[in-house]
């Protein structure tokens, strides 16, 4: 047997670390040389043994690389300086050792109750790098929740995990298919997840899972070490702070005196809540949020998030009861009150600890804020009365001196010669209590003034004069926004645009008629204009309070049988009648408009004749039917 067909060649292949496919070469040569079957069997056995040896050597070589990587990681931990650098090194080694396209790490956020992306290596998607996972969502959320490794060879098609649009979108944008995730354990707690992922389907061997678990253990040690270092630094800082407390107390007294002088000057020169907030943060540092009684922002200085609603309500109530500022977590709360009335709160996130003198500064700022809010309310009420009186004079009959009214309006920043729409708000917006009526009028005054218009209460209703030409849009906006304020549906009728001050009274009368027509049409809680209701709206507006009953009776006697038939049978007789009258009684054109055959239109109209009587097309009856159809359409507007 030649050397080329002997088992020795397998040793030579092993020596030069040949690829697995090359081990078939000796067998191929032996078969070509015509060696007997027993010799071929020996060579086949030698090949199998050689491949086993090759696999063993490969595993040992890979294990050496893994151990070297773990040793390097341990060395990094021994010289830990920057946590981010160590975590990046661990994630990078995970990617290299497992031969994956991407490796990344998420850490649990105890405050938000989810887990977020901390470090990535090989990632190309910004969306993926910003992912946050709820506990239990996706592969990573499940690992973080259960503390158990999970692996998938094709994530998008794996139904074991709870898929969400945000997670699947990030994974899809990154192009990941196969994912392995193992928990970062710190004692019995899971603090995050370490991942290795591929952009193509692949299995992960048990040895790869074990390797990633080892790297995760190193990462957890790094995080815990960084925490201990931070705690050590904090302890040293506390010792240093004890020494500076005495100096801080002395300087706090000086700050209190300076703050008192500054806020006194603010009141004297007519400053606002924004100025108070700026003064407090200049003196105490940090960030401050000023809120009104409804929790709406009055002023914000610095970076401070909206506090939790429940925590804020409890803290403000405690501050009001105790008559001083209170602390909840990192925030200080001071109630803004005037007597028994709650006007709002100041929320301070200081840079450091507040001593008693600093707390007095915050409390004095709350007192000054209350004074400014009361003053602003008084000014606003006075201005509202002036603006309301002007609008009342404008819509009164007969109109007084137009030029004098123009002059009064100019002083309020209103141009009466510009186009305006008048919006009349129904009685459904005003509850029985006086406080509710005042709240609606206050809202209307603010709503109109911020848009350069006017508002007033007149005959138990509220009327707004708003700049612009879109009467219907203005009515719908007022109805929508005021409904949110009152918590009940609000009806608003509008007319316009006006053509100078002399036309405003007429425009207002049309708006009132539109409001009445909406009630008669059964459209309470909506907004519309006279132009949108057309002649039917004007007709109903003149009917008065009995309009709703009259309209219902007229509809019932005129087209009620047709409407009821459509409702019962799901037919389109009403639509066919509208099309028929709309094209002047042409059967062919009606059929074309309805996209049906002429015979279908004829059959439908025969059914109408059976329901309404044979004389329904006579001129007098036809006019009544058309008017009833128009009323029916207005009572059930599209959309």
Automatic annotation (TrEMBL):
User: What PANTHER family does the database record attribute to this sequence?
Assistant: CARBOHYDRATE DIACID REGULATOR, DNA-BINDING TRANSCRIPTIONAL ACTIVATOR ADER
Q: What is the lineage of its organism?
A: Bacteria, Bacillati, Actinomycetota, Actinomycetes, Micromonosporales
> Where are the annotated coiled coils located?
none
Stated name of the protein: Helix-turn-helix domain-containing protein
Superkingdom of the source species: Bacteria
Q: Provide the GAF domain boundaries.
A: 82-233
The signal sequence is none
Of which family is this protein a member?
Belongs to the CdaR family.
């Amino acid at each position: 047997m030649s050397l080329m067909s002997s088992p020795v060649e397998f040793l030579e292949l092993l020596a030069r670390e040949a690829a697995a496919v090359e081990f078939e070469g000796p067998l191929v040569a032996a078969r070509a040389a015509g060696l007997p079957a027993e010799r071929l069997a020996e060579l086949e056995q030698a090949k199998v043994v050689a491949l086993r040896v090759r696999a063993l050597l490969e595993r040992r070589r890979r294990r050496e690389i893994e151990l070297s990587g773990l040793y390097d990681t341990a060395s990094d931990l021994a010289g830990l300086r920057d946590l981010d650098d160590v975590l990046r090194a661990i994630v990078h080694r995970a990617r290299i050792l497992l031969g994956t396209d991407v490796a990344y790490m998420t850490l649990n956020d105890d405050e938000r109750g989810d887990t977020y992306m901390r470090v990535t290596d090989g990632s190309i998607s910004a969306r993926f790098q910003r992912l946050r996972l709820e506990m239990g969502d996706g592969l990573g959320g499940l690992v973080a929740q259960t503390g158990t490794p999970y692996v998938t060879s094709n994530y998008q098609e794996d139904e074991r995990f709870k898929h969400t649009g945000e997670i699947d979108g990030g994974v899809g944008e990154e192009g990941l298919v196969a994912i392995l995730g193992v928990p970062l354990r710190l004692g019995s707690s899971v603090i995050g997840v370490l991942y290795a992922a591929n952009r193509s389907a692949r299995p992960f061997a048990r040895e790869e899972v074990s390797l990633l678990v080892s790297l995760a253990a190193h990462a957890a040690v790094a995080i815990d070490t960084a925490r201990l270092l931070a705690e050590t630094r904090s302890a040293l800082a506390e010792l240093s702070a004890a020494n500076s407390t005495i100096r801080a107390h002395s300087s706090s007294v000086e700050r209190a005196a300076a703050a008192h002088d500054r806020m006194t000057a603010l009141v004297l020169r007519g400053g606002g809540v924004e100025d108070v907030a700026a003064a407090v943060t200049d003196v105490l540092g940090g960030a401050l949020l000023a809120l009104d009684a409804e929790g709406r922002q009055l002023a914000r200085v610095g970076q401070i998030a909206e506090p939790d609603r429940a925590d804020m309500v409890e803290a403000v109530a405690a501050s009001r009861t105790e008559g001083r500022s209170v602390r909840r977590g990192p925030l200080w709360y001071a109630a803004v009150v005037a007597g028994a009335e709650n006007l709002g709160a100041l929320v301070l996130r200081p840079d450091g600890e507040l001593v008693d003198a600093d707390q007095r500064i915050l409390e004095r700022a709350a007192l000054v804020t209350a004074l400014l809010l009361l003053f602003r309310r008084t000014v606003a009420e006075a201005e509202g009365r002036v603006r309301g009186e002007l609008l009342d004079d404008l819509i009164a009959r007969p109109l007084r001196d137009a030029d004098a009214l123009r002059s009064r309006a100019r002083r309020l920043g209103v141009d009466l010669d510009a186009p305006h729409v008048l919006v009349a708000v129904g009685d459904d917006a005003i509850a029985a209590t006086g406080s509710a009526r005042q709240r609606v009028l206050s809202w209307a005054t603010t709503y109109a003034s911020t848009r350069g218009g006017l508002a007033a209460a007149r005959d138990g209703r509220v009327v707004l004069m708003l700049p612009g030409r879109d009467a219907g849009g203005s009515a719908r906006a007022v109805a929508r926004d005021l409904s949110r304020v009152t918590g009940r549906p609000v009806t608003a009728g509008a007319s316009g645009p006006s053509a100078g001050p002399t036309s405003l009274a007429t425009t207002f009368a049309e708006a009132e008629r539109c409001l009445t027509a909406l009630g008669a049409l059964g459209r309470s809680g909506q907004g519309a204009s006279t132009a949108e209701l057309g002649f039917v709206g004007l007709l109903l507006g003149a009917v008065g309070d009995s309009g709703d009953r009259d309209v219902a009776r007229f509809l019932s006697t005129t087209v009620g049988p047709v409407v009821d038939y459509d409702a019962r049978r799901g037919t389109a007789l009403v639509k066919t009648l509208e099309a028929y009258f709309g094209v002047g009684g042409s059967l062919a054109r009606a059929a074309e408009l309805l996209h049906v055959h002429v015979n279908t239109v004829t059959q439908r109209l025969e059914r109408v004749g059976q329901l309404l009587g044979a004389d329904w097309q006579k001129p007098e009856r036809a006019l009544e039917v058309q008017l009833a159809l128009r009323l029916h359409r207005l009572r059930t507007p599209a959309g």
